[in-house]
Each structure stands twice: as C-alpha cells, then as structure tokens.
C-alpha cells in the first residue's frame, strides 16, 4: 500500500461492536431515567400544589355549611301544671330550668324530663308572678314582677363537683340582693319588668296600671367589710306621647341603662333617653309580636306578624343625638307571626319560633339564615330556651310536651357579605370594612372582613413595585446592554447576592432604623426623589458637552461608574439642606405640616417605609430575570439594527426590548408575587393596622402578615382559625390567577417576537 493510499483511507467504525451496544444501552438508560425523573418531578410539583389547594379547601368549606337541627327527645312538661314564664339550660346540657307563674323553679333532666329539684320563691302569700325579665342569659339573674307591685331578684346557679371522678351538677337558687321584696308600686300588678345590673347600680323598669315606673338601686360597698348595700333612687321619665287606649307592653333596658324601649299597643315603640330626657316614637306598619336584646344588650330584635325580624340599635342622627335605627331585617321562610325568640349566649345569633312550630336560626352580623324547618307538629310553642353553647334547643309546646333538639351550627358568623361587603356593626355610625378578630369581652361582635387585608396586600405590593420595578428594569437594561463586560461580571453577582439577605433582617432594619430615620428626614427624602433625576440628567448633559477628546478618554460602558459621586453628592446636599427646606416651606417640620395643615394622618411605620424596604427586596428578583432576558437577545439582531443606521438607544427600544419582553414580563410577575407574599417586612415595618386607606403615610396589614400574627393564637377548628385559612386560600388563588395570566401574556409575547 502506498503512502498516498494510506492517507486517503477512511477509518473503519464498527457500529455492531459490543462496546457500541453497551454505550447505546447506557445512553438509552440515561435518557429514560432523565425523562422519568423530570416527569415525576413535574407531576410531583403539580400534585403538591393540588394538595395544598385541596387542604385549604377542606379547612374553608365548613365555614359555608348550613346548620343542622335534629330532635333528641320529647316528654311531658315536668313539675306542676302552671304557666311557664321562663326556661333555661345549663352549660353541660344536663339540667333544664322552668319558672312558673306560681313562683316555682323546677330543675329537670334535659334527657328525660325527670325533676331534679324544686324551689319555691319567697313571695308573699296569695301573690303570683305576673312578669319576668332576665338581665342577660349568661348571668342567670332574673327579676320577677309580682301581682302585689313588688319585684324579687333571684339567680339560678349550678355547682359542679367530681366525687369518684364523676361529674355531679347541683342546681341551686341564690338571691344576690337578698330575699326581701323590692317595692316598685304600692298597688297593682307589675305587668312588665326589665332589669340591668352593673358594678355601680341596679336598674328596674316596669309598668303598673299602664304607668311606667322605674327605680335605680345604687350599690354602696363598705370599705372594711366589703358588704354591698342598695340605696334606692326613683327614676323620673319624660312624658310619653299620648297613648290613648293603647296599653303598654314589654319593657326593654339597654346594657348601659340609658335607653328604655317600651312597646305601646301593637305597632309602636317608644324610646326613652334617661340622660337627655327625650322620647323617640317609632311606628310600625306590622304588628309587633316579640322583642329581645341580642347578646351584649346593644341590638334589639323586633319580630313582626309578617314573618320579618328587624335588628335595631342606637345610631347618632343628623342632629348628633342617638336614635334607635333599624339596621337590617331578616326574612323568614314562614310568612307568619313569630311568637318566640331565643338568643345565643356567646354569639350574635338567635332562633325564631313561629306559631305552627317552624324554627329558623340566624346570625345577625353575617345577615345569614343558617337553618329553617318545621320541627313541631300540631302544637303552639309556649316557651323556648337555648343552651349556653347553642347546641341544644328546648321548646315547650301547648300539647304539654317539651321538645329537645340538638343543634350543629359551628360557623354561623361567616357569609359572603360579612367577608367582602361593608357591614354595619354595633355602636358604629355607618357600615364599614373592619377586621377585628378578638376582644376582651364575651359580648364581642366578630368583625372578619377580608377587604382591609386584601387591600393592604395590594397596597404594599403596589408601593414596593412602584419603587423596585423601574430601578430593577432600568438597571437590567444598562447592565446587560451598555455596561462593559468587566464591570458586568462584578455588578450582576453583587445585586443577585442581595436576594440572599433574610427578609427578617430587612424588616428589622426597616422597623427600627428606617422608619424613624424617614420620619425625621422626610423633607430630605422627598427632595432626593425630586432632585436626583434632574441632577443625573443635568450631569449627562454636561458630559455630552465636553470636548470629544475628553469624552473618548472614558471607556465605553463605564459611564455609570462616574455617576456614583454625583449620586452621593446630591444625596448629601439634600440631607444637609433639609433643615433649611423645612424652615422655609413647612414651618420647621414637614411631619407636623402634613398632619396639622394638610390634615393627613401620619404613622411612623407606613406604606412609604414598606415601599422602600420591600422594593429593596424585590429588586434582585426582577433585575436578575430581566437582565438575563436582555443579555440573551441574539447579537446579530443588535448588529443588524446598528448596521442599518439605528442608534444604540433606537436598537434597544425597537429590537432588544421587544425580543426580551417575555423575560422582562416574567421578572415583573415573579417580583409582584414576591411582594404579595412577603411577610416579615410588612409584619415589622407597617404597624399592622388593618385599615383601608391609600394614604402613603399610613400603614396596613397584609394577608400574609395577618396569618403570621394570628394563626399561632387561633383555636383549632374555630371560626377564626378557618377564616385565616380562607385568607390563605385567597392569597393562593390570587397568586395562581396572576401567574396564570402572566404565563398567557408571556407566551403571546414570545409568539409575537419569537420570529425576530
């Protein structure tokens, strides 16, 4: 073989050798392993997101479930055959109470009606109980009006002991103000009575012979013996509007012992203001069948013969004086007279019972009907009692039977309107969005509107993006397109390293250092924001006017570096001139000028602080993604544009930015998601006040910060606990919708500019 033929000979490759087969098998295995691994990872991510969604849904769905009422027992009314004036059930649902017009207190087993104990009240011989009122269901204090014009105050109480580890409940009757009869009138039966007790006094209001009578008993405590004595004091009422032949009906006294509501006839309510000595008269188009105060003694429920129930409480009128105002009404399924109302003792809920045995459950704040059904057949209810935990309902019917029902009503406080609409809460002058999940009082009305939290989330994200997005995108444009490669290799990692800074550190610095610093240097901050752009543009203009030889001495891509001294000098000048600016324009203090002269509320930890701190946190995310997108634009596109005569800025705006727009948009959306879900910065730098105000000088509370604050304190499976999960669900849905919309927009941008 010649040398020339050896050079031209082609190498012989045996594709059927064992080595090639082994290599192909290994490569095939790697391909399959990578395919399966990527598929499993992708499916795992989707499954994890789906499981989070399902778990949140599992915790949230019970909030919107209706109540359930099931009959438990029916038995003959325990005790003597007498008219029942009042019924009650103790905490454990074991013992019920029946009070008769003969002055008997009969304690019986709720399960079977067996009589446990009977107490005879110490009322004068020959007298009967003509009226009865309860100060509050939880207190157990009763005022019993007598046929002789007197009033006896008694309290049903229960002692619990555990002999041999077995619970034993012992019912008893106590007389907190003694067994003596309190005289309300010298003659005539007390036809109606109302009682309220506070630490300072006890007030009794009633009417005898169609005349309103009241007495206040001032409590005086002996300093040495701590014995309480009652000093009687007669109350003087302003004259009522002419009643004519109409008789006075039920009397109601509010929790502050300031307002008396008297039913006059069948279609009229008179409201007496004891302090202002004024009378407000309210006429109704329908007959008033029943009325009771809700838990807390602020709202009065008025039931009408057309099947509606109105909730009324005091609201300041146009003249500044409080007026009893109907806030909302509840429509029952049964359009007929409502004979009884039963009030829950721990929630703003109540039950209505109609003459034909139709029972409905409502919650006042949520404006929600959670149950309706006809549970009693062929008899009219005479008395109704609801247990303290609102899980038992006792109804005494005209067939001499007591019907016991089990109630499952875990979360009546929540409805669409209570979460997302304005609600008129008790003691408020108008409907508002309010989040206040807890209180020191058992009479608290839950205020769980998610609107302030959602608004706070968007407000914090808006101000963070307002500061962070322009800086991040402009920085990405300059770094990727104009900056010299040597400088880019140092700047880009440095900015990306900022993302590793824990947000708790940023929140700590923002709350303890940045917030007071910005408050004390408010004029300097705004001066920098106004002056800095013009200073940079002015410096750039001066640079363009330098001799060409001097300009050429500055290497291409290093212009941003020489701006650093300009930024430092302008910032220092603004900080140094801040006292003179405040003295010249703001009477020495811009902070005081904003609050006093402009009337704008100012909190130290406000949206401006959050915008700076959280903007600093989202800049690295947006910058990194946008910079990579711009830098990845093929160079031949830029070179072609420049070759056709376009300037670098024209090339950037017309070629590079459109091509990189999908990546830039992705960076913005990821930054927005980071701002929406941020917790520690807004938790430590906003003041956590759940208010709805776009004012940049006031704080806010976000959904994520609210979860961090309240989840550890919430009782598991409580309404508060599940509403917090609902807030997390709202945050999840918001993020999902934004990311989905962002992906759709990104794909369209990629399709539009992908052909470049």
From TrEMBL:
Domain of life: Bacteria
Localization (cell): Cell membrane
Membrane spanning stretches: 33-58, 460-482, 494-515, 521-542, 562-581, 607-625, 723-742
Coarse class of the protein's main subcellular location: membrane
ABC transmembrane type-1 domain mapped to chain residues: 454-742
PANTHER family in alphabetical order: PHOSPHATE TRANSPORT SYSTEM PERMEASE, PHOSPHATE TRANSPORT SYSTEM PERMEASE PROTEIN
Name of this chain's protein: Phosphate transport system permease protein PstC
Species of origin: BD1-7 clade bacterium
């Amino acid at each position: 073989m010649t040398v020339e033929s050896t050079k031209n000979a082609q190498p012989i490759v045996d594709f059927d050798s064992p080595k090639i087969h082994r290599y192909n098998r290994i490569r095939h295995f790697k391909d399959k392993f990578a395919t399966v691994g990527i598929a499993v990872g992708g499916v795992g991510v989707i499954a994890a997101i789906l499981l989070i969604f399902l778990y949140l849904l599992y915790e949230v769905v019970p909030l919107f479930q209706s109540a359930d009422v099931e009959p438990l027992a029916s038995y003959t009314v325990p005790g003597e055959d007498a008219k029942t004036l009042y019924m009650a059930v103790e905490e454990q649902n074991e013992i019920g109470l029946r009070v008769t017009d003969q002055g008997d207190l009969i304690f019986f087993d709720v399960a079977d009606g067996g009589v446990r104990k009977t107490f005879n009240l110490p009322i004068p011989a020959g007298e009967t109980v003509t009226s009865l009122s309860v100060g509050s269901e939880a207190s157990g204090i009763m005022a019993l009006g007598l046929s002789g014009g007197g009033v006896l105050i008694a309290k049903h109480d229960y002692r619990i002991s555990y002999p041999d580890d077995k619970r034993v409940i012992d019912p008893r009757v106590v007389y907190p103000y003694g067994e003596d009869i309190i005289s309300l009138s010298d003659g005539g039966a007390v036809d109606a009575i109302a009682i309220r007790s506070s630490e300072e006094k006890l007030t009794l209001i009633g009417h005898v012979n169609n005349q309103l009578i009241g007495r206040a008993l001032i409590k005086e405590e002996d300093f040495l013996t701590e014995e309480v004595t009652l000093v009687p004091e007669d109350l003087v009422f302003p004259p009522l509007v002419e009643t004519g032949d109409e008789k006075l009906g039920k009397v109601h006294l509010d929790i502050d012992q300031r307002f008396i509501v008297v039913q006059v006839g069948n279609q009229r309510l008179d409201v007496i203001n004891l302090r202002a000595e004024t009378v407000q008269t309210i006429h109704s188009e329908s007959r008033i069948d029943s009325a009771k105060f809700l838990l807390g003694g602020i709202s009065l429920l008025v039931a009408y013969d057309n099947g509606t129930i109105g909730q009324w409480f005091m609201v300041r009128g146009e003249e500044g004086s409080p007026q009893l105002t109907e806030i909302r009404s509840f429509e029952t399924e049964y359009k007929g007279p409502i004979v009884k109302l039963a009030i829950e003792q721990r929630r703003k809920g109540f039950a209505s019972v109609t003459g034909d045995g139709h029972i409905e459950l409502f919650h006042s704040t949520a404006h929600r009907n959670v149950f309706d059904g006809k549970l009693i057949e062929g008899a009219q209810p005479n008395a109704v009692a609801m247990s303290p935990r609102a899980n038992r309902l006792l109804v005494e019917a005209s067939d001499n039977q007591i019907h016991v029902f089990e109630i499952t009503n875990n979360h009546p406080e929540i409805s669409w309107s209570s979460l997302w609409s304005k609600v008129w809460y008790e003691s408020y002058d108008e409907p508002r969005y309010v989040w206040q999940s807890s209180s020191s009082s058992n009479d608290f009305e839950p205020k769980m509107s998610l609107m302030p939290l959602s608004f706070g989330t968007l407000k914090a994200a808006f101000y963070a993006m307002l500061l962070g997005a322009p800086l991040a995108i402009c920085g990405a444009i300059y770094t990727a397109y104009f900056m010299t490669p040597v400088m880019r290799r140092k700047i880009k990692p440095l900015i990306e390293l900022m993302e590793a800074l824990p947000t708790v550190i940023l929140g700590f610095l923002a709350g303890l250092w940045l917030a007071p610093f910005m408050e004390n240097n408010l004029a300097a901050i705004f001066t920098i924001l106004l002056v800095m752009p013009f200073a940079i543009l002015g410096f750039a203009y001066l640079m363009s006017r330098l001799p060409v030889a001097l300009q050429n001495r500055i290497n291409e891509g290093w212009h941003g570096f020489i701006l650093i001294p300009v930024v430092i000098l302008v910032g220092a000048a603004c900080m140094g001139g801040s006292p003179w600016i405040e003295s010249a324009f703001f009477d020495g203090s811009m902070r005081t000028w904003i609050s006093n002269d402009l009337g704008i509320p100012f909190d130290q930890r406000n949206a401006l602080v959050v915008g700076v701190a959280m903007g600093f946190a989202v800049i690295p995310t947006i910058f990194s993604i946008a910079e990579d997108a711009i830098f990845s634009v093929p160079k031949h596109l830029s070179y072609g544009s420049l070759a056709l005569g376009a300037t670098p800025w024209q090339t950037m705006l017309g070629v590079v930015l459109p091509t990189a727009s999908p990546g830039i948009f992705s960076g913005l959306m990821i930054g927005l998601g980071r701002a929406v879900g941020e917790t520690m910065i807004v938790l430590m730098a906003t003041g956590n006040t759940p208010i709805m105000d776009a004012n940049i000088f006031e704080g806010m509370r976000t959904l994520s910060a609210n979860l961090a604050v309240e989840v550890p304190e919430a009782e598991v499976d409580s309404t508060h606990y599940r509403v917090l999960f609902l807030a997390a669900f709202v945050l999840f849905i918001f993020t999902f919708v934004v990311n989905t919309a962002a992906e759709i927009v990104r794909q369209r941008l990629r399709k539009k500019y992908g052909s470049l």
